[in-house]
Design brief:
Length: about 425
């Protein structure tokens, strides 16, 4: 989840610039185009021979990386160009996001033992463990099958692969017998309570005052209507004026305890000095939001066609569809006992059982993004990476040299 959240946050940083320093946005054509930004990493420095006041964003199937053909004999070529995102087994750059969404540039840290290095080398058919490649990692939760430690969620801080049983087990540094010290040590349908035991998650209506994270995955802990305690309530179930809880957005999309189909969202009320369900402020119509402030549910966005900026709503285009798709996705996670945090990773429980519903949810609940013109073809946040044509296959292991060969082939197509 954190991976996709980073994508959303980076895009926001690139396009929702400060009104006094609004950059022009230019979507590049594709491979080897000069760039200083992409959908995944944000800014990367101005390329040579290009207007430095512009933001040059790579299309969705590329990232902005160091030009492999920039050298002393070709000093005027751009420092950074758009390069294809790498698939399973292909070489990647650890310092930036250069893998297809859902994959990890491995190793993220030094392997713990030479034996694990040997196993990894056999899996990706590489001659050296020092080469970073895109791999499927962190797909298994506690009790699920694994081959190496990096198969397990939150390794090396949460779980590790038991060398004999070949299942993910909690990594707990405690002399006392205990089930957990964090949520990752428990199964998805359990929560880690304050006395370090894994207990069944609470049903709708149960008191969650002591630990708000104890509710079932398709519900949320919110303040009661008639007392100071809190109870587990269904997603999107609270009405206008009722107390609510804000939720960490999953994959950058809307998740709310308020009924968004009735145009109510959970936000802070200065009058009530608490969070309540309320309607968003009226949208602002302006052709220059660098001077005219947008509403609190909008952002001032500058484009190549409008340097003054326009106000873009951050609310879903179709809130009723968002509510339906989001509910279906979280119900699926609860039904199959899956975590949401790693549902975008191939082989994970959420990916195997709920991928279609996840992608429907992303498509329905994402707000309009100002860099949508920078997506390749019909791509959007609901189709890139694990939801789209770039989904990594289980038999896609490729030698690292392939990525350079792909770039070379593209150059040949462009030149000839």
């Amino acid at each position: 989840m954190k991976y996709i959240l980073l994508i959303i946050a980076i895009v926001a940083c690139v396009n929702f610039s400060d009104a006094q320093n609004c950059q022009k946005l230019f979507c590049q054509q594709g491979a080897l185009s000069p760039c200083n930004s992409d959908i995944y990493n944000g800014g990367g420095g101005a390329p040579k021979k290009v207007e430095t006041a512009s933001t040059l964003i790579c299309p969705s199937q590329y990232y902005c990386g160091n030009n492999p053909f920039q050298n002393a004999s070709n000093p005027d070529s751009p420092l950074k160009v758009c390069l294809p995102l790498a698939n399973v087994g292909q070489r990647c750059i650890q310092s930036s996001i250069s893998c297809i969404p859902g994959l990890t540039c491995y190793p993220a840290a030094a392997p713990e033992s030479r034996e694990e290095v040997r196993v990894i080398e056999e899996e990706v058919t590489l001659p050296s463990a020092s080469i970073y490649t895109c791999q499927i990692t962190h797909s298994a939760t506690v009790g699920e099958k694994c081959s190496v430690n990096t198969d397990c969620v939150s390794y090396p801080t949460g779980l590790l692969c038991d060398p004999e049983k070949k299942v993910c087990v909690p990594l707990i540094n405690s002399k006392k017998p205990t089930d957990c010290t964090s949520q990752v040590h428990c199964k998805p349908n359990e929560y880690c309570n304050q006395t370090t035991n894994c207990l069944p998650r609470l049903a709708i209506g149960a008191d969650c005052t002591e630990l708000p994270s104890s509710c079932a995955i398709n519900s949320v802990c919110a303040a009661n209507l008639n007392n100071a305690n809190s109870s587990c309530v269904a997603l999107f179930s609270r009405s206008n004026g009722q107390p609510c809880t804000t939720i960490d957005a999953t994959f950058g999309a809307i998740v709310d305890s308020c009924d968004i189909s009735q145009n109510t969202y959970c936000s802070y009320s200065a009058i009530n000095t608490s969070y309540i369900c309320q309607q968003p402020p009226a949208p602002v119509t302006t052709s220059n939001c660098s001077q005219d402030a947008c509403s609190s549910s909008e952002v001032c966005t500058c484009t190549a066609d409008n340097s003054g900026g326009v106000c873009i709503s951050q609310l879903p285009t179709d809130a009723s569809s968002c509510k339906t798709k989001a509910s279906a996705y979280f119900d699926c996670l609860a039904q199959y006992n899956c975590f949401s945090e790693n549902a975008y990773i191939p082989r994970s429980c959420g990916f195997v059982n709920c991928k279609a519903k996840l992608c429907d949810y992303m498509g329905a609940c994402h707000s309009k993004d100002p860099s949508s013109s920078c997506f390749t073809g019909t791509d959007n946040f609901a189709t890139i990476g694990f939801c789209g044509s770039m989904v990594p296959g289980s038999s896609s292991i490729t030698m690292p040299s392939m990525i350079l060969m792909i770039v070379t082939l593209i150059i040949g197509t462009i030149l000839f």
